[in-house]
Amino acid sequence: MLNVCSADSLRKVDIGGRRYRRCRPSVRRARVHVCVNGNAGCSLPHPCHPNPCHNRGICHISETYRGDTFIGYICKCPPGFSGVHCQHNINECERDPCKNGGICTDLVANYSCECPGEYMGRNCQYKCSGPLGMEGGIISNQQITASSTHRALFGLQKWYPYFARLNRRGLVNAWTAAENDRWPWIQINLQRRMRVTGLITQGAKRFGSAEYVKSYKVAYSDDGKTWRTYKVRSKDEDMIFRGNVDNNTPSASSFTPPIEAQYVRIYPQVCRRHCTLRMELLGCELSGCSEPMGMKSGHIQDYQITASSIFRTVNMDMFTWEPGKARLDKQGKVNAWTAGHSDQSQWLQVDLRVPTKVTGIITQGAKDFGRVQFVGSYKVAYSNDGERWITYQDEKQRKDKVFQGNFDNDTHRKNVIEPPIYARLIRILPWSWYGRITLRVEILGCTEEE
């Protein structure tokens, strides 16, 4: 063995009253020995060669001696291993990393979480069960198609597929397949691949008689041409979902594992009288970070919502359209925020209290004593301190991005923010409007864990 204890690399040490020389730690740490003064051999065994540490542990020499030789070492273990020689695989599942009912599986120096259908993320921390837009109108009429449409009263009454919206009201308030349609289906084009975790179904009444779907199958596709039917888990057998038992009570089914696709198709199997359906799809964006942050639910409190100005109808306090009312689907005579001025310097601000990943915004207009009012387009600005504001940019055009807003007072309009915003404060800057600047909103995103 090569003697690394050369004269220019030694320093004197006292061990038991005797004088020795020891290699400087900076000189080939993997070959460090204690050498008797003048010894030219220095070929004693090295405690870290071969490496006694398992699983890629790193061996470090300790200040322990036997006579004139280092004999002590310490194994620095990589994450996931423990023991004197890093020989033990730590069971990461013992600390319960999986949230919301997730099932933990211990792996070598790692773990995995099997999440319930409505949750996702490494630790099942992201909820993925929000409505995708049948009831609210985010899914447009053009995105909903079907195998056929039932026509009644000599063809004057048509039960179109785009009537298949959960809780739709009116005389004709659902989709019904034609009587001669032996294999009916209704299909939703989500316009991009999304994660679908569940479905809510509902029947309806036609001429006073209850009609509904008792059971159904589900298929999905990425291109609208090649379809896969949802299967019973671990079996090559089509899953048959239970539907409704009356015309009005919603019935929910969850998909575990969830569906990831652009197109979702429902195949009624057993129907009462006619195959009549109202429905809502549940899920989220593929990122999983698109849950409502709390405008509609009230989790975001009134004091967190501010605005540039406030409008009062007939200048009365009881008809004050304050920012705290700017909540998606808020009901009542005064049920939104309306700006006191109609110009492009107005804004509505939401303080999320902590830096948050924001992936989307849903907007809605309102009516003021029958007058339709809404924001037709808007910009978005964000900040972490309330002083320095950045306007969200269109990456391709390299200028402020103008988001499309609403076209009526009630329909939801969702805009995906990609790439997402990371900020505490979000401002919506109305750019065009109809009537007065009027908004009801929801912020979509998630608070990312460290």
* DSSP helix fraction: under 10%
CATH class of the largest domain: Mainly Beta
Structural class determined from secondary elements: mainly beta
How much is the radius of gyration in Å?
Answer: 33 Å
Classified in CATH, the superfamily of the largest domain is Galactose-binding domain-like
- The tally of strands reads 39
The largest sheet is: 10 strands, antiparallel
Q: What is the count of structural domains?
A: 4
Which residue ranges are poorly predicted, with pLDDT under 50 across at least 5 consecutive positions?
1-18, 20-34, 36-41
- How would the global form be characterised? flat
N-to-C CA distance: 49 Å
The proportion of residues in beta strands is: over 45%
What name is given to the CATH topology of the largest domain? Jelly Rolls
Oligomer: single chain
Number of H- or I-type helical stretches = 0
Mean pLDDT: 88
If classified by CATH, what would the architecture of the largest domain be?
A: Sandwich
